[in-house]
Design brief:
single chain; Rossmann fold; L-2-Hydroxyisocaproate Dehydrogenase, Chain A, domain 2; 6-stranded parallel beta sheet; 3-stranded antiparallel beta sheet; 11 helices; 45% helix; 20% strand; binds adenosine-5-diphosphoribose
C-alpha cells in the first residue's frame, strides 16, 4: 500500500513540530511548504528531521519546498501559514494579510490536493478556517479548524496539575471559539470516571477555566517572542491521525455547522467524530441554558470576525 501524504503549509514554529511528530508516528510522507524566500530554511529544517530517522527509526520521507506541485495528491493538509501580529499592527491589518495568505493557500490546495482533509491552525482561527472553506469550496466534512483539542488539552493539564493525578485519567471538552469566549464544559469533565464537580471545589474549577481561556496569552507573555507551538502541533496531529487511521475519535474541532446547536453557517468548536471520511458526525449535546448562552456569546464573537472576512473575499 502506498504511503499517505501529509502537506504542511507553513514551515514556521508549529510546522517544524508537526513534521517531527508526523514523522515519528510514521503517519505518511511529509512535505513542508513555505514561501520562496524561506524555501532554503524549509529544506534545512526538514533535512534535519530526516537525519534524525537513524536514531528515531522512522521510515517516511520528509522534504521541504516552495512549489505547490510537490504537495500533489496530499491526503491531509495542515495549514499554519500566516503572519503573527507585530507591535503597532491592528487586528484589521493582520486580518487583511492573513486572509490574503489563506486565500492563496486555499486556491493552490484546491488545485493540487482536491481530495485532502484540511486542518486549519492559522489565527484568528475561527475566521481563517471560514476563509479557507469559502475560497476552496471544499465540502464541510473535509475542512476543520484546530482549537478545541488544544483548549481541552490545556484544561486537562491544569486539572491534572491541580489534583496531582495522571492527565490520562482526565477527560474534558471545551466548546466555542478559540479565544476568551471559549466554553469549558466543566459539567462533563471527569477524573478517573468521576465528575470533576464532585472532586474539586467550584472556585478551583472556575480558576482552571479562566486560566484555560487565557492560556495562549500566558505562553505568549512567557516566551516573549512568538506563540505556543508544541501543544498546537500535537493537537493538529491528533486530528490528522484520527482521519488517517480511521480512528473515529470524538474530538472538539471547529466545524461548519448547519443548524446544530442552533448555529448555521459558522465554524464553531463542537465535539465531532473524525474518521476516514473526515468529519463524519457532529455530536449534539443538550446544553444547560447558561452553557448555551455562553456558546452563543462565543458565536457572536466569531460572527464579527467572519463579517470582516466576507468584506475581503
Ligand atoms: N504560504 C506558505 N507559507 C507562508 C505564507 C504563504 N503564503 N505566508 C507566510 N507563510 C509562512 C511564514 O513564512 C512562516 O514560516 O508561515 C509560517 C508561519 O510560521 P510562524 O510565524 O513561526 O508561526 P507559528 O508559530 O508556526 O504559528 C502559525 O498558527 O497558532 C497559529 O497564531 C498562530 O497564526 C499562527 C499560526
Amino acid at each position: 500500500m502506498a504511503r499517505k501524504k501529509i502537506a504542511l503549509i507553513g514551515g514556521g514554529q508549529i510546522g517544524g513540530i508537526l513534521a517531527l511528530l508526523a514523522a515519528q508516528r510514521e503517519l505518511g510522507d511529509i512535505v513542508m511548504l513555505d514561501i520562496p524566500e524561506k524555501e532554503s530554511m524549509c529544506k534545512g529544517k526538514m533535512l534535519d528531521i530526516a537525519e534524525s530517522a537513524g536514531v528515531l527509526g522512522f521510515d517516511v520521507s520528509v522534504t521541504g519546498t516552495s512549489n505547490y506541485d510537490d504537495i500533489a495528491g496530499a491526503d491531509v493538509v495542515i495549514v499554519t501559514a500566516g503572519l503573527p501580529r507585530k507591535p503597532g499592527m491592528s487586528r484589521d491589518d493582520l486580518l487583511d494579510i492573513n486572509v490574503k495568505i489563506i486565500s492563496d493557500v486555499a486556491k493552490n490546495v484546491k488545485i493540487q490536493a482536491p481530495r485532502a482533509f484540511c486542518i486549519i491552525v492559522t489565527n484568528p482561527l475561527d475566521s481563517m478556517v471560514y476563509a479557507f472553506q469559502k475560497v476552496s469550496g471544499f465540502p464541510k466534512h473535509r475542512v476543520c479548524g484546530m482549537a478545541g483539542v488544544l483548549d481541552t488539552s490545556r484544561f486537562q493539564t491544569f486539572v491534572a496539575m491541580e489534583m496531582r493525578v495522571s492527565v490520562k485519567d482526565v477527560s474534558a471538552v471545551v466548546l466555542g471559539g478559540h479565544g476568551p469566549t471559549m466554553v469549558p464544559l466543566t459539567r462533563f469533565c471527569t477524573v478517573g470516571g468521576l465528575p470533576l464537580t464532585q472532586v474539586m471545589t467550584a472556585a478551583k474549577i472556575e480558576a482552571i477555566s479562566a486560566r484555560t481561556r487565557e492560556a495562549g496569552t500566558e505562553i505568549v507573555n512567557l516566551l516573549g517572542n512568538g506563540s505556543a507551538f508544541v501543544s498546537p502541533a500535537a493537537s493538529a496531529i491528533a486530528m490528522a491521525e484520527s482521519f488517517l487511521l480511521d480512528q473515529r475519535r470524538v474530538l472538539p474541532a471547529a466545524a461548519l455547522l448547519s443548524g446544530e446547536y442552533g448555529i448555521d453557517g459558522y465554524f464553531i468548536g463542537v465535539p465531532v467524530v473524525i474518521g476516514a471520511k473526515g468529519i463524519e458526525k457532529v455530536v449534539k449535546l443538550k446544553l444547560h441554558r447558561d452553557e448555551q448562552e455562553a456558546l452563543m456569546k462565543s458565536v457572536d464573537a466569531v460572527k464579527g470576525a467572519v463579517a470582516d472576512v466576507d468584506k475581503r473575499i
